[in-house]
Amino acid sequence: MQPLADMFQDYAPPNAADYNPDAQVAPQLWPRATLVWSIAYNTELVKNPPKTWMDLTKPEYIKLTGQVIGPSGGTTWTRIMFERQVLGEDYWAKQAATRPVLYPSGAPMSDSLVRGEIAMGPLLYNAIYPKQKDGAPIQIFFPPEGAPVNPYASGIPKTAAHPNAAKLFLNWCLSKEGQTFMIKELGNLTSLKVPPAYPEGFDPKVVKVWFPKFDQYVKLQAAWIADWNKTYGYGQ
């Protein structure tokens, strides 16, 4: 969104100072939605569940895990960037050795997890949480090594026909009330410095929220995605 920032008019919510500056790429754009990565597993299939990111490299999980492909989009790029920078440059090779099933996005992967076609894997919390909420045999946790997050930028275009209505909407979305709704009902996190709530199982004393550095986010992507594709044997 950064190259498009000039298309948006000046705007800041009343509680602007309450937001983490690491979640913003431009003063006109605000993190209305903040998506977070988790690990989920099917409780009917997994009796010795993973507890960390590194556990997904265990030989006992060969052919049991799933992975959303690296080139699928920005959220997945954030995850694989986190894996390489935080878990180590050899993490991809170790995890790929378990021969995971590759998926084009989190939607088909979460469906496969519920059906028992795979047993576990990393998923955006908002992709799997609604299925758990509806009664699927799914357990979700946030690994202690870190929870990669993607802030989604929202703003008011300079061409907006109803800018005051847009401000009213964004003010609510970015308010403590709006962010609480997104956490509890939609399975998001928040970019507020002091979160009004946490997803079930998210212990802020144990789990560190991880924001990508935005300059690296752009510069590293092409080469690292190519490396990921080679490591996982994926070709478009």
Q: Percent range for helical residues?
A: 25-40%
Tell me the major beta sheet.
5 strands, mixed
Compute the separation of the termini in Å: 25 Å
By secondary-structure content and strand pairing, the structural class works out as alpha/beta
H/E topology pattern: EEHHEHEHEEHHEHH
How many helix segments?
Answer: 8
* Strands, total number: 7
Low-confidence residue ranges: none
> How large a portion of the residues is in β-strands, by DSSP E?
15-25%
Overall pLDDT metric: 96
Shape assignment:
globular
C-alpha-based Rg, rounded: 18 Å
Could you explain how this protein is built, in words?
By secondary structure, the chain is of the alpha/beta class. Helix content is 34%, strand content 16%. The chain has helices at 74-87, 91-96, 106-115, 125-133, 163-174, 176-186, 214-219, 221-232; strands spanning 30-42, 66-68, 101-103, 120-124, 138-141, 147-154, 209-210. The radius of gyration is 18 Å and the shape is globular. The model has no long low-confidence stretch (mean pLDDT 96).
